[in-house]
Amino acid sequence: MDSKGNIYFSETTTHPIRLLAPSGKTAILAADPWLIRPDGAFISADRRLYIPVKQPLDTTDKAPFIIYALPLPENFDGIALGDAVTGR
Fold first, then answer.
1. 53 CB contacts (<8 Å, ≥6 apart)?
2. 69 band by pLDDT with thresholds 50, 70 and 90
3. In a designed cystine with 82, which of 4, 13, 60, 71 is the match (CB 3.0 to 4.6 A)?
4. Which InterPro entries match (predicted)?
């Protein structure tokens, strides 16, 4: 979730990161076949969405996990994106 109330969903079977705005509008922020079982995404103070991805066990030539980092624009597909939620 970001500071403007947008929720970021990772879809485990179809591989996108979907954005859900408080208005109900949705958009696909990123999609890639390598987004396999993304889990525990978070937004950093410098407005990057970090997406830890556990890779399948049969990828011996790959690391057991990969962390993707996407810089967040101010707006995406007509949805204003917020900052990290800090609890302050």
1. 34, 35, 36, 37, 38, 39, 65, 66, 67, 68
2. very high
3. 4
4. 6-blade_b-propeller_TolB-like
